């Protein structure tokens, strides 16, 4: 189960984000207006917000919950590839998100049990796997769709989840988590989680408009999103850094990098914008690695609530960014910086309180 846990982030987030570059083609396939397929991206995020806090209450072994969740991600991904209408696809994507909710929260809680001597490092690697999966899902889906079409691309990217699921069911480890516990003392940690995905998606959604103003073509704009690879480096390094200096200092450093990156995105050249965006993602994923690890040490209840709060930030970003499209990009950077500032104010209560709970 140990390494299946790490691999799970790759396969489920590949399936989650695979449709993103295919949305125009899917809209043509379903014969719907441009933008209508965006509900297929929003549906699973809403499901993650709703179901993540409920997963720890399931009275099943952790292996069965994780295995069933990963299997469901694969099944509904494949079924979505043959959906007859947009409405059916959106429903299947919502169900896929509900299954996906079984994994992230429990995964952070299980890291502490399965890797007690390397919990911080493995939490960082878990987030790195999520970043790898999101990047691979987008890239592979685009490449496969060129030769096979959008439906085959979605099906093929979802298949690895079906093959990974049995490893949770036959693993030698039999890990039983404590009953989920919830405490108001964890709210600063939840606030940090909400802030992280908000900043990530708020900036990423507005970036194409910024790049178009600088004269970028659609192809070049797509390449800029390779900056998400910086998130892999950030999340991988976060655990090691936290072990050396502690979670609070690691969070301060990661959020500081985000602020520097936001400033860089105000540059008037494409290279500066790309470098700034890469720094933002490095810092966001590094902070997510540390904060997710802390949530796991609180137990499965807080861990599930943290995942829900994290994706709530993404849902809020999707609703907030449209009015900023026609404004100066500096206004958008100002909003993102304000949210980062609120996260910084939450660090003193988030890191020590979690540490005290676990010790």
UniProtKB/TrEMBL annotation:
Its main location: membrane. InterPro entries: MFS, MFS_trans_sf. GO terms for molecular function: transmembrane transporter activity. It comes from Marinithermus hydrothermalis (strain DSM 14884 / JCM 11576 / T1). It is a multi-pass membrane protein. GO terms for cellular component: plasma membrane. The keyword Transmembrane applies. Belongs to the major facilitator superfamily. PANTHER family: BLL2771 PROTEIN. The chain crosses the membrane at residues 34-55, 62-82, 94-115, 122-145, 151-170, 182-203, 223-242, 249-267, 273-295, 302-321, 327-347. Keywords: Cell membrane, Membrane, Transmembrane, Transmembrane helix, Transport. This is Major facilitator superfamily MFS_1. Coiled coil: none annotated. The keyword Lyase does not apply. It is found in: Cell membrane.
């Amino acid at each position: 189960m140990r390494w299946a846990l790490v691999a799970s982030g790759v396969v489920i987030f590949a399936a989650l984000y695979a449709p993103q570059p295919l949305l125009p083609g899917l809209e043509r396939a379903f014969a719907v207006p441009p933008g209508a397929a965006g509900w297929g991206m929003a549906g699973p995020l809403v499901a993650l917000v709703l179901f993540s806090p409920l997963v720890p209450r399931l009275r099943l072994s952790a292996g069965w919950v994780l295995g069933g969740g990963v299997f469901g991600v694969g099944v509904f991904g494949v079924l979505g590839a043959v959906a007859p209408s947009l409405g059916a696809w959106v429903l299947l994507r919502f169900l896929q998100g509900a299954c996906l909710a079984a994994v992230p929260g429990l995964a952070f809680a299980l890291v502490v049990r399965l890797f007690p001597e390397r919990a911080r490092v493995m939490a960082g690697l878990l987030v790195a796997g999520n970043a790898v999966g999101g990047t691979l899902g987008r890239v592979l889906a685009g490449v496969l769709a060129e030769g096979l079409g959008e439906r085959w691309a979605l099906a093929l990217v979802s298949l690895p989840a079906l093959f990974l699921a049995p490893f949770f069911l036959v693993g030698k480890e039999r890990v039983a988590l404590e009953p989920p516990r919830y405490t108001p003392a964890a709210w600063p940690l939840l606030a940090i989680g909400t802030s992280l995905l908000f900043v990530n998606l708020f900036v990423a959604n507005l970036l194409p408009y910024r790049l178009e103003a600088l004269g970028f073509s659609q192809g070049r704009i797509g390449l800029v999103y390779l900056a998400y690879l910086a998130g892999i480096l950030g999340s991988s390094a976060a655990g090691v850094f936290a072990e050396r200096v502690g979670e609070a200092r690691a969070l301060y450093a990661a959020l500081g990098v985000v602020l520097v990156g936001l400033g860089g995105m105000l540059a008037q050249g494409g290279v500066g914008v790309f470098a700034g965006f890469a720094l933002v993602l490095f810092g966001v994923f590094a902070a997510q690695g540390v904060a997710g690890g802390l949530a796991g040490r609180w137990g499965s209840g807080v861990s599930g609530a943290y995942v829900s709060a994290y994706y709530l930030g993404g849902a809020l970003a999707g609703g907030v960014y449209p009015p900023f499209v026609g404004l100066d990009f500096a206004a958008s950077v100002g909003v993102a910086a304000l949210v980062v500032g609120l996260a910084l104010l939450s660090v003193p209560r988030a890191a020590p309180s979690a540490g005290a709970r676990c010790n």
